[in-house]
């Protein structure tokens, strides 16, 4: 029959499944099930054997869509490729493709934890703002627009600097995904940080230092927190370097604290003089 939208719409269900084929022996047909469901099919021969390929259901796949997919399949045949087998492989690959949830777990386990002391912070950020939105989606389905919308949500709730941090972590995670061949393109490449960050130049004067030090005695906090804050002020080191310090790093005789390269943020070991 001659395929038109009118002729295909006019096909009615029967007690058994049947097929109608397009004029001109193109191999393109439409299969009508007893339920009335209509599916596009392509009949062809490959290596001398008959093959059947499903192109989708009508009207979700329009007549124009079916003709385009049919033409692409014929080109593959001309190049010596079985289009039906390739389509099955692609569908299997799509079903097996990693979700964003799986990408997060793999990134934390194989990249963040072995390389970063802040791996727990990476997981917290990703599980708070990305997992609820995209966890069930395929990682390769995330678009640049999805990423921008996610960052806008963080900014709109009043956390613009957090949006900058989220951008950095997510961009690194998707770059990891590209390296692992989980996806082909990093959707966050080229996205600018949502918020402008200004470097801090505020310092405490002597009176403020005195107020802080003496005020800790009256502060409602655990003793370990009080000691940690005093040690931060006395040594002017980073929080993580202070709270993760071990006794083996301290030489109390010579009054020096050696922070190893594996713990230093810049990867370079350095010595911190200790006051009496």
What do you see in this structure?
The chain has 276 residues and is an alpha+beta fold. It has 11 helices and 7 strands. Helix 7 runs antiparallel to helix 8. It is elongated and about 95 Å long. The model has no long low-confidence stretch (mean pLDDT 89).
Strand element count: 7
- What does the radius of gyration come to? 31 Å
Sum up the overall morphology in one term: elongated
Helix segment tally: 11
Average pLDDT, to the nearest integer?
A: 89
Estimate the strand proportion: 5-15%
Strand/helix succession: HEEEEHHHHHHHHHHEEE
**Main sheet specs:** 4 strands, antiparallel
The separation of the N and C termini measures: 98 Å
Question: Short summary of the structure?
Answer:
The chain is of the alpha+beta class. It has helices spanning 5-9, 63-78, 83-96, 100-115, 119-129, 131-134, 144-156, 160-179, 206-215, 223-235, 239-243; strands spanning 18-21, 28-32, 38-46, 49-58, 250-251, 256-259, 270-273. A hairpin with a 2-residue loop joins β3 and β4.
SSE layout and pairing:
Layout: H1 5-9, E1 18-21, E2 28-32, E3 38-46, E4 49-58, H2 63-78, H3 83-96, H4 100-115, H5 119-129, H6 131-134, H7 144-156, H8 160-179, H9 206-215, H10 223-235, H11 239-243, E5 250-251, E6 256-259, E7 270-273
Antiparallel strand pairs: 1-2, 2-3, 3-4, 5-6, 6-7
Helix pairs in contact: 4-5, 4-8, 5-8, 7-8
């Amino acid at each position: 029959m001659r395929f038109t939208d009118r002729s295909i719409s006019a096909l009615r269900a029967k007690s058994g499944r049947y097929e109608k084929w397009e004029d001109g022996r193109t191999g393109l047909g439409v299969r009508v099930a007893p339920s009335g469901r209509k599916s596009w099919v392509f009949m062809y021969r490959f290596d001398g054997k008959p093959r059947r390929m499903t192109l989708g259901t009508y009207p979700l796949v329009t007549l124009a869509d079916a003709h385009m997919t049919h033409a692409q399949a014929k080109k593959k045949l001309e190049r010596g490729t079985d289009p039906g087998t390739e389509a099955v492989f692609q569908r299997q690959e799509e079903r097996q493709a990693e979700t964003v949830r799986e990408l997060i777990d793999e990134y934390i386990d194989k990249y963040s934890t072995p390389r970063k002391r802040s791996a727990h912070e990476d997981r917290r950020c990703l599980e708070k703002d990305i997992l609820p939105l995209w966890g069930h989606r395929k990682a390769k389905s995330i678009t640049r627009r999805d990423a921008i919308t996610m960052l806008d949500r963080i900014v709109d709730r009043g956390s613009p600097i957090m949006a900058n941090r989220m951008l950095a972590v997510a961009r690194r995670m998707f770059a990891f995904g590209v390296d692992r061949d989980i996806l082909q393109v990093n959707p966050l490449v080229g996205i600018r940080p949502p918020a402008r960050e200004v470097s801090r130049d505020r310092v405490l004067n002597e009176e403020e230092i005195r107020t802080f030090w003496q005020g800790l005695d009256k502060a409602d906090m655990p003793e370990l927190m009080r000691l940690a804050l005093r040690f931060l002020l006395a040594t002017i080191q980073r929080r993580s370097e202070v709270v993760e310090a071990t006794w083996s790093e301290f030489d109390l005789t010579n009054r020096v604290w050696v922070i190893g390269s594996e713990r230093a943020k810049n990867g370079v070991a350095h010595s911190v003089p200790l006051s009496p």
